[in-house]
């Protein structure tokens, strides 16, 4: 029995932690929000140099060939610093999908570049007025010769300006079910797309609406089997959700640290406010949630890496718990800080906003509850809708 | 990360399973778990069970071999708890003796004390209880008022103890009494090994809100103890208490494993209860509540394993044990609250009139309120976590 990260994993966490702190912790996110991306770019290069982008890339494609658990320390640290960017979408989602379903040439084209830190992915899933459900994937994609013609609009696309490629679920077949959806990779360097920025509570993640005025791309850009993109998406989502749980754990940890430190130095009525049980116990509640969230996230990533039988419920529940804990802890952190917590100057709001950003990201809380229930055998999986 | 058990550990598990199969009362494993209602018969039943455990070498597995234990590893203790929970084994009547008094005497007791008590603890010949809490000393044990005054070659003890589990069955008490008053409240407390069978000791039952009688009040009127009954030094009982707590290295494992099992029972209940001709589990609101409880009971188990890993690496338990206790006791309360809600108004039916599970849900629901109080309230656990793990300043007055 050993339920802990390995010494190597903890050591690597130390490197990433030290690097991000040296770079100013939340300073990168703050500058990014103001539109200054210089320190963000430095950090992306720096993290690649540390090896973060190559951890889970197979060795034959220039990576370290490690697993989901090895990403955990990096993910937690990124979450701690509310770092902008597409690490989750690239290293968890795109790498999983490419590794499992990509053709040899797709792997050759993307995996080494991801490992080097020069290629990033975003996910363009939602369409205006629609949900994450299959019925709402209506972007038209018609096969013509050896190319595909794509046209329509995707909305709430995260950090499209930072992405080298987008992965899009599109409708290649008829109807509105899971069947007939395919996943395509759209390389942005050689595509002309109209991009309309959308204001987001959490401006450390940029959102945009993109419109494809019908364009033509090669059919080689389809990833996984034609019309079966939904299943490919589900595999990618498992990896994303396990990773997202760890990112959120990092966020909760930062919030608990902030609250505890402030409660030790802020004095009212002649004593540090952390002496009052109304404050102390609130912070303890946050800490307890943090440790439960971390245990669930560790196990989720273990289950993913080892393809455990209970991996779906383990991953989904880890995500659900972390999201709830993060939103609650981030909100309580403001209350503990009092007036200063309400200001832009203090980091409290960065965490509230990021927690909210993740709450329903890539699937609603509601639909994940049902997905967990189905995995536990309490309702029929075919009746569970993603939305 | 590795969730497997070694071959040696699995062999240990198998040995215990085999023993349990042939030694539990007849029909026990098939669900016929008849525990006598009558107090005397109940006491007899529990003592017999402990005797059986002793004869099989399963009463005190963590004790060193020279005292009749198996020198079990921490992992073997965990497996032991898992297996005992799995078969819903009867409680260990001499829990206090085996887990607290015995190990403490081995560590700091005098040779005469070891000789006089340890073997009888193991065999169940002498059952022990704890004498800590008092009417005005609950969460704050330093406030105890029971006094021990020297009178020639003896000590005269006066005062009142409360919440004494199995006090009515006990032969001896691990008693905290005040022997002096100094500036620091935790100084001046002494631990006595008190004979319960003497005129100065009177035990009165406390009937709990679940109708049962586990707890007692113990009245001490000129009860007598001798120098030979003191553990450690006079006035230094607080140190003895700290040493005693360090023996609880497996923490609240048994409760964590029990909660896991109770959750499985809850799933069965959610399929059994019908609502409008449909099992309750078909209701999405119920499912959401169930997923939530599943997540948190898994979380409590996994968190326990993470803390256990720390204990295995450091060789001793840490303040994280407070977190396990807080989580599992609060969650148990929620689980049984949910179980009654799920039964609708029928949930209020109790004992022989209960509709589901022979009153298991109602009895445990009522019992669960004690879990966030006994062994340190949730509020005390939160203070420990806040101060010892997060480094927050101590409350005034402590």
From TrEMBL, chain A:
Acyl-CoA dehydrogenase/oxidase C-terminal domain: residues covered: 228-373
Cofactor: FAD
Pfam families recorded: Acyl-CoA_dh_1, Acyl-CoA_dh_N
Acyl-CoA dehydrogenase/oxidase N-terminal domain span: 6-117
GO molecular function list: acyl-CoA dehydrogenase activity; flavin adenine dinucleotide binding
Keywords annotated in UniProt: FAD, Flavoprotein, Oxidoreductase
PANTHER family associated with the record: ACYL-COA DEHYDROGENASE, ACYL-COA DEHYDROGENASE FADE28
Entry's family note: Belongs to the acyl-CoA dehydrogenase family.
Protein name: Acyl-CoA dehydrogenase
Lineage: Bacteria, Bacillati, Bacillota, Bacilli, Bacillales
UniProtKB/TrEMBL annotation, chain B:
Cellular component GO terms held in the UniProt record: plasma membrane
Organism for this UniProt entry: Bacillus aerolatus
Alphabetical keyword list: FAD, Flavoprotein, Oxidoreductase
Residue ranges of every copy of the Acyl-CoA dehydrogenase/oxidase C-terminal domain listed in the record: 235-390
Gene3D superfamilies: Acyl-CoA dehydrogenase/oxidase, N-terminal domain, Butyryl-CoA Dehydrogenase, subunit A, domain 2, Butyryl-CoA Dehydrogenase, subunit A, domain 3
Database matches in PANTHER family: ACYL-COA DEHYDROGENASE, ACYL-COA DEHYDROGENASE FADE29
Domain of life: Bacteria
Pfam family of the protein (one): Acyl-CoA_dh_1
Stretches assigned to the Acyl-CoA dehydrogenase/oxidase N-terminal domain: 6-125
Record's keyword annotation contains Manganese: no
Family classification: Belongs to the acyl-CoA dehydrogenase family.
Domain Acyl-CoA oxidase/dehydrogenase middle: 129-222
Protein name, UniProt field: Acyl-CoA dehydrogenase
Xref: InterPro entries: Acyl-CoA_Oxase/DH_mid-dom, Acyl-CoA_Oxase/DH_mid-dom_sf, AcylCo_DH-like_C, AcylCo_DH/oxidase_C, AcylCoA_DH/ox_N, AcylCoA_DH/ox_N_sf, AcylCoA_DH/oxidase_NM_dom_sf, Mycobact_Acyl-CoA_DH
Entry keyword annotation includes Transmembrane helix: no
GO molecular function annotations of the record: flavin adenine dinucleotide binding; oxidoreductase activity, acting on the CH-CH group of donors
Cofactor annotation: FAD
